[in-house]
Specification:
Elements: E1 21-22, E2 27-28, E3 34-40, E4 48-52, H1 63-71, E5 75-80, H2 97-112, E6 121-126, H3 128-139, E7 146-150, H4 163-174, H5 194-200, H6 211-226, E8 235-240, H7 248-257, E9 263-268, H8 281-302
Parallel strand pairs: 4-5, 4-6, 6-7, 7-8, 8-9
Antiparallel strand pairs: 1-3, 2-3, 3-5
Helix pairs in contact: 2-3, 3-6, 4-6
Amino acid sequence: MGEWWTKFIGKLPNAGIFYPEERWLKLSSYNGKKLWTYRFHRKYPKALIFIFHGMFSESNDTSHIAKFFYENGYAVFAIDQEGHGRSQGNRGLIKSIEELVSDSEKYVLLTKEHYPENTPIFLFGISLGGTIAGQIAILQSDIINGILLFAPALGLREDFEPLAQKLIQCLSLLCGCFHLSKFDETLSSRNSLYIEYNEENPYSYTGKMNISTAAAVLTGLKMLQKGLIRISVPVVIVQGGNDNIISYEESRKFIEDCGSEDKEFWFYEEMYHDVLFEPEIEEIAYRALEWINCRLASNYLLK
């Protein structure tokens, strides 16, 4: 990383914090692209935590939360999805959520082989990463001990349905090169430097969304919604009341409908969409730490 980030130190929570190991595990995507992997390593961790970033974001946006959990005894991992961060692929293009899920699932399975057998595994999903984490929890329920989803892309606001969805699907079929309007990033965070940080970050994509990407995301959301009843692992959703992308009503409905018997909904009235950059993140981090520690203790007592 260059020196562009130094002026944000002390102003954005992740600025100046980086995963100490990059490309520690050689991994290729479903489409044969080289993927960038990251970790905070402990030889004998309490558990393995995987963090999946949001759409058009990158793993070092999550470095502060990763460092926090590492300092509390965990090994923490991240991956730049194809076309994101430092991984290969077309910037701003997502061909299929299923492909991202496949890449992420492979990363989890390969990583666990480097650690003691039966080490617990928890997944963190940020926005679109929440969709990915939810799908992995369905596919690998036998090895996943819990998922924490931060403003997850699990359902769109009601004013985005159903006409807009049909229009996107049709345009994607006609010509995938169309683009939607550029997203207003002031809707993502109350931190006034958030937009400037993203614009200067060479590993973030801030252009217009390709219509094919929008269609792929919509398809991925529908897939997860159909599989709700199959989510059996402990789950937490962290959601803000001022999220202008994901409706908190949709997130609350998701937590009510999912199949897990151990589920919680943490609601913060003033919080915007990008939870990791919001003022409440320190409180949320400690709360998440306590949640994981409690489930590890419960698992230990059951053995």
